[in-house]
Amino acid sequence: MLFNIFLLIAGLGALVWSADKFVFGAAAFARNLGLPPMLIGLTIVAMGSSAPEMFVAATASLEGMTDTAIGNVLGSNVANITLILGITALLGAISVSSQTLKREIPMMLGATALAGYFLHDGQLTRIEGLVLMALFFSLMGYLIWHAISNKERDPLIDEAESEVPKDVPTPKAILWLVVGIVLLPLSADWMVQGAVGIAKAFHMSDLVIGLTIIAVGTSLPELAACVAGVLKKEDDLAIGNVVGSNLFNILAVLALPALIAPGAVDAAASSRDFYMVMATSVALAILILLTGKARQLRPWHGGVLLATFIAYQVTLFLS
């Protein structure tokens, strides 16, 4: 048990660190190749927070643990809204003003509904994975087109562009890119193996492993980004990070188990857990709309979201 705990913690730490270095190296290398910072920010940097979920999902799928990969996606989306935004909102009201964000919430709801449709028959097929991946690339294309054609600067785009590293020597960029490429799959495997060892000791299913231990672990980068956004008085970026991450999880990460290991899905994923993802996504939109022109998540909203997260986790552990 102690070895599995060590493996989980080491894997999580290495996963988050290597994802950061991979994004840093890839973004710096792309900039040195002459790609526009805005394009890099909207692709490589924006996808960075979902890199842990992507590598964990791919690793779990390759090891025949499709339910863990699916649970990671569903659990991460629930954790992003209830745990991450719950904690962040407790630090102070979070305003929503970005035009891009007002489009992204309906996109997130639509993508979530589509995922539910694909999962409802208890199967995740390779065709469905291709559809999700095609929608992901279409979304990226749309965001890039909108950023280029829209004269008004969007804070989410500005933030993504500002995170593209400058004046990084190409050898250094390549070094961190290679380090990330090597360590990401290794650390994802350590984390999966550690989580599985712990969970099996408590007789938890592969799905619940993904929904709990792994989902919370891979959501930690979003927590750091959201808290940093609020502390910098950039409220809109907090919800933007969560909504963007949830979109990427549904379209890009859920596509991986479908493409790598298509087949049957745990029945609870298409009922209990999908309903939870959909309910929390809709609740986020409703909570914001109910504040009228203020368009805010308030501290008491954060308390409700955090209580929802705790209740859901307790339900999973008792199931």
Automatic annotation (TrEMBL):
Keyword annotations: Membrane, Transmembrane, Transmembrane helix
Sample GO molecular function, one term: calcium channel activity
GO cellular component terms, semicolon-separated: plasma membrane
Major localisation: membrane
InterPro entries, per the entry: K/Na/Ca-exchanger (IPR004481), NaCa_Exmemb (IPR004837), NCX_ion-bd_dom_sf (IPR044880)
Entry annotated with the keyword Transmembrane: yes
Pfam families in alphabetical order: Na_Ca_ex
Annotated Gene3D superfamilies: NCX, central ion-binding region
Transmembrane segments: 35-57, 69-93, 129-148, 173-196, 208-231, 237-262, 274-294, 300-318
An individual GO BP term: intracellular calcium ion homeostasis
Cellular compartments annotated: Membrane
Span of domain Sodium/calcium exchanger membrane region: 5-145, 173-317
Keyword Nuclease: no
Membrane topology listed for this record: Multi-pass membrane protein
Identification of the protein by name: Calcium/sodium antiporter
Species whose genome carries this gene: Shewanella insulae
